[in-house]
């Protein structure tokens, strides 16, 4: 039996299935943490440990190999308690992504398979359209040589964005409705099933051509004007998917058509759909 491989497999299951998010304690925010007792719950309910004591011992073995790290210096051994812990992959200090979460580092962060294009742990855990499984699939696909694998993974992401962009997407609650220049603008919000995160979707008529609107989304300078919390962006590398360029950006596109849009903004991942000329979600 390869104990380390077994522990790595259990850790991967834990990281994909228990709740990981930012948490506060004593006026401090601890990023990307999980609760010890919830990890124990998962190990027992999934049959990975017969008792809670055995589950705790498994977690202590992972902690001894630095797979799990304590969040505060007051903690000793891993315990079946409400104490916070963090997986090594999500540790701000130990993670290759730690210095690059804002896109402002001079270093290169690598994802699955060594690609330069990757998701920060904070994004993968807290995004509404992403999860760890899809984030890692995207990283592996971009790092690999298969264009088909990249397109397959991106289509999954696009499908999730489209689902939330639909007018009848469930669980969105109207929080504000106003009229600007005779145009009705509605703001919808929905709370994530877990974690203290709120997603926002705005619908209305954008007084700009489809081409101008999409180019604005792609421009970091334009986004600074639109989004008060947006600081900066960085293009790490292009992703070849074998697709033809969007017809939306060709020269013969109607420039003066007003665009009716429904845009879900995932604040954790920054994912926003491109749009067709009739306002339907197209590509990410």
UniProtKB/TrEMBL annotation:
InterPro entries: DEP_dom (IPR000591), WH-like_DNA-bd_sf (IPR036388), WH_DNA-bd_sf (IPR036390). Residues 14-89 form the DEP domain. GO terms for biological process: intracellular signal transduction. It holds the Pfam family DEP. SMART domains: DEP. This is DEP domain-containing protein.
């Amino acid at each position: 039996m390869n104990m380390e491989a077994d522990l790595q497999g259990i850790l991967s299951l834990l990281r994909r299935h228990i709740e990981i998010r930012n948490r506060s304690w004593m006026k401090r925010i601890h990023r990307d943490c999980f609760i010890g007792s919830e990890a124990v719950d998962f190990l027992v309910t999934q049959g990975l440990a017969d008792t809670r004591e055995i589950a705790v011992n498994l977690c202590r073995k992972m902690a001894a190999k630095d797979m799990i790290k304590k969040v505060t210096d007051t903690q000793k051994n891993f315990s079946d308690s409400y104490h916070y812990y963090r997986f090594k992959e999500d540790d701000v200090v130990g993670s290759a992504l730690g210095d690059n979460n804002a896109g402002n580092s001079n270093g290169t962060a690598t994802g699955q398979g060594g690609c330069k294009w990757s998701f920060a742990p904070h994004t993968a855990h807290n995004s509404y359209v992403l999860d760890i499984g899809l984030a890692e699939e995207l990283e592996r696909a971009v790092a690999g040589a298969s264009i088909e694998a990249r397109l397959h993974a991106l289509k999954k992401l696009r499908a999730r964005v489209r689902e939330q962009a639909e007018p009848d997407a469930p669980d969105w609650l109207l929080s504000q409705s106003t009229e600007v220049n005779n145009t009705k603008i509605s703001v919808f919000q929905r709370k994530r099933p877990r974690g203290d995160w709120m997603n926002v979707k705005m619908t209305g008529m954008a007084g700009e051509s489809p081409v101008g609107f999409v180019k604005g989304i792609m421009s970091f300078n334009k986004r600074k004007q639109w989004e008060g919390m947006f600081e900066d962006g960085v293009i790490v590398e292009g992703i070849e998917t074998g697709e033809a360029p969007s017809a939306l950006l060709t020269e013969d596109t109607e420039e003066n058509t007003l665009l009716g849009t429904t845009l879900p903004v995932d604040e954790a991942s920054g994912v926003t759909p491109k749009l067709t000329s009739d306002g339907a979600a197209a590509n990410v």
